[in-house]
Design goal:
The protein is built from 17 helices and 18 strands. It is an alpha/beta fold. It is elongated, with a radius of gyration of 27 Å.
Length: 508
């Protein structure tokens, strides 16, 4: 049989299986990505073939490969062709689903074979192998494992075929010597034990997509044609949703407007494990940042703020301060996502600084607070995560050495650990002992920078509260930020499995 004749659709495999069954032949099935065909794969297929009369191999299609950035290295048609070229393989198909579960039900092999690295099903961070094992039992097949040399396509690609920039690759080579993949994955898993309170400004990000059609004939104004719009839960809502994908219990404290509160929409966008404590600001709208966006390039044309940043009235301010004073000791970590729009008052800052067991803060500089909102409004913090332009605003220093600036800010507020995000330059991490670590950016594709800092803050704060190595704090923040910039607005939060897959891709 010619190699190309071996490549079938999944439906054709199911038909062929019935023919083999009538002939009394024992069918063996293997499934995987097989991105870089290597000697480990070949021996795996050869051993699997010895378990029956025919070997069928199915491949994960490109759109469902979840190995992280730049994967698969080889497209599905080439992966299929490479496997079809092996004499021990009888038939090949590109799968239609993310996992082999439905394929197993269609093909109903006698034996389903996995490599020896999957023998301990509990080690699979995705849970796919466990689900596939359940289907194997359901269809009355046998689950078997090969026992031979194991290579990792991810490791080989990282080592010999990496498409990462040289700076990033050099850093990752050194990072792998200092920390293991298990160190990082365990840190992510440990985040689930943290009890977290998140406080800050609710922001609804309204994206109005349009196309530029010219300038007004009477005024020098840009004219655009409306296309569509989308509303995202941003600000502290986005931070809470990110955190909720890692920590099991999250308390949210924020302010909504009395008129046009959008409370139903907001509640619908919060993760199930978030308990909201909504305070109401009288005669005010819930803050909306309306961005007019070019629908083709996704470039933002201009913004409109719908807000009242005067804050809560005194009686409600005292109410929340009292609530905070009573409840803060119940949490392991408090994250203040302070956008400077009035939700976090001076009295709340004082209460947070005095009573939070571990306080992580971000004070964002944006058009809505006009440079009056800086990190020193907090007299104390355990972890500070701000952008480079925000620390320069704090010190009114446009060109100063960033490391010296970090030292000065840490001394001002008694901060043990500080991260400054620097866009394409990555981030800098400084400890209370004066050690500074520079990490490169892991971002190569940017869809939207809105919300990336919030994602960085969320995961790095969780890591900092666990007391892990400062470099791991920066690394996890960088990886999370690299994922977030590929998401439009705050359409969805970064989740645990997604972060783990990226970690594996970078470090394995």
């Amino acid at each position: 049989m010619l190699n190309h004749d071996k490549i079938k659709t999944v439906e054709e495999l199911a038909e062929a299986r019935e023919s083999f069954r009538r002939q009394g032949k024992k069918v063996v099935h293997c499934h995987g990505v097989f991105d870089l065909l290597h000697i480990g794969h070949i021996r795996y297929f050869e051993q699997a073939r010895q378990m029956g009369d025919l070997l069928i191999v199915t491949l994960t299609p490109d759109r469902f490969v979840d190995k992280g950035p730049h994967r698969p290295a080889f497209p599905e048609n080439l992966r299929a062709e490479a496997i079809a070229s092996l004499n021990c393989v009888d038939l090949v198909a590109i799968n239609q689903w993310p996992t082999a579960e439905e394929t197993l039900r269609l093909i109903r092999p006698d034996v389903y074979v996995k490599g020896s690295e999957f023998r301990n099903i509990t080690d699979d961070v995705t849970g796919k192998i466990g689900r596939e094992a359940a289907v194997v039992k359901e269809i009355g097949a046998r689950l078997a494992f090969t026992d031979d040399i194991v290579f990792s396509s991810t490791t080989l690609i990282n080592r010999y075929l990496s498409t990462l920039p040289d700076e990033m690759q050099q850093y990752l080579n050194l990072f792998r010597h200092r920390y293991t993949m298990d160190d990082l994955l365990r840190t992510v898993d440990r985040m689930s034990s943290l009890r977290v309170l998140v406080i800050g400004d609710t922001i609804l990000d309204d994206y109005v997509f349009c196309a530029a059609i010219g300038t007004s004939s009477k005024d020098p104004a840009l004219a655009v044609k409306y296309q569509s719009h989308d509303l995202f839960a941003g600000g502290v809502l986005a931070v809470a949703n990110h955190v909720a994908n890692f920590a099991e219990t999250v308390q949210l404290v924020t302010v909504l407007g009395e008129k046009e509160s959008h409370e139903d929409f907001i509640r619908s966008k919060l993760s199930r494990n978030i308990t909201p404590y909504f305070l109401t600001q009288p005669d005010s709208p819930t803050l909306i940042k309306r961005r007019y966006v070019d629908g083709y390039t996704l470039n933002k044309l201009f913004e409109v703020y719908i807000m009242d940043d005067s804050g809560l009235p005194p009686d409600r301010n005292r109410e929340v301060c009292g609530w905070l004073a009573e409840n803060l000791p119940n949490y392991d970590l408090v994250i203040a996502a302070d956008f400077g729009h009035g939700a976090v008052s001076r009295e709340m800052v004082a209460t947070l600084s005095a009573r939070a067991p571990f306080l992580a803060i971000n004070t964002q500089a944006n058009a809505g607070n006009r440079g009056f909102h800086t990190v020193s409004r907090y007299p104390r913090a355990d972890f500070v995560c701000i952008a480079e332009h925000e620390i320069r605003l704090e010190l009114r220093d446009l060109k100063g050495d960033i490391h010296l600036m970090m030292e000065e800010v840490q001394n001002r507020i008694g901060c043990d650990l500080m991260v400054v995000t620097r866009g394409r330059k990555g981030c800098a991490v400084r400890t209370k002992d004066g050690d500074v670590i520079e990490l490169p950016s892991f971002t190569e594709k940017v869809v939207d920078r809105i919300g990336a800092g919030d994602a960085f803050l969320s995961v790095s704060s969780l890591a900092a509260a666990l007391g892990v190595e400062p470099e791991i704090v920066g690394f996890l923040g960088n990886v999370t930020g690299a994922i977030a910039v590929q998401i439009l607005g705050n359409k969805k939060p970064v989740d645990r499995q997604e972060l783990k897959k990226h970690i594996i891709t970078f470090v394995k």
